[in-house]
Protein: Citrate lyase subunit beta/citryl-CoA lyase
Organism: Labrys wisconsinensis
Amino acid sequence: MSFTQYKPVATRLQRSELAVPGSNPSMIDKAAASAADFVFLDLEDAVAPNDKEPARRNVIQALNDIDWKGKGKTVSIRINGLDTHYMYRDVVDIVEQAGSRLDTILVPKVGTPHDLTMVEALVTQIEEARRLPNRIGIEALIETALGMANVEEIARQTHTRRLEALHFGVADFAASRRSRTVVIGGLNPDYPGDQWHAAIDRMVTACRAFGLRAIDGPFGDFNDPDGYVAAARRAAVLGCEGKWAIHPSQIAMANDVFSPPPAEVERAKRILVALEQAAAEGRGAAQLDGRMIDAASARMAQNVVTVADAIAAKAA
């Protein structure tokens, strides 16, 4: 193991992340009552320009009025892009007026590490000025060719460790690369495989190298549950720990795909017990069900058990 290691910055259960337009208060109320682990209140793409300021006010009210933690939710906001005049007021108004109720801020279209600096500076100053009791995390959307080209440098944001997660934004990424597709997250039959595999794989590797969570983005056709599940499974195999839900019907599917099956959890626990017994006997490896297991097996098994424990804690 390298002497240089980056431990997980923050551990949050994020199997399903429900996107909710800040311009629709009734949808916000429904999101709070849903089974989603994570909810982000959107001020960016889902909100028309004329609705930006009312949406911001709706989000502030929803953060303050709804008991998100009591409902088992992590709550986030997606601010407007750094290239718009809406962004600074999104951060200032919401963090000043409801920052104590906010868990993370999702920054769209991050292209370079410097794109996070302004947001981090604003949040830090407001936290100090308002003496907020909590530390607000930052999550970055990797959804442009520039962002993917710089994803390792973006993940290597170690000066404040406020950055917690990277998300793959497939629609804007496809547009940025001029990929031949007009669907969000689906596969193109002209491509022999998954055209998003390389991008997600690269982002996940960058996340895990520097202690961040990796989250897969949206699947646009909410009338295609089989397609959603297939996309979620591909992301899970690559190491993502959750996926966006743009419709409530996708929440249960995400929760199911990113929850380890009971048999997998049971085997993981047996691996840990077997290796603990082997270590007590002075052995570094052991056999279980006719297969060799060692320290690497323990690390994989512990990942499964950690997720299972978080799910159990939420259900309690």
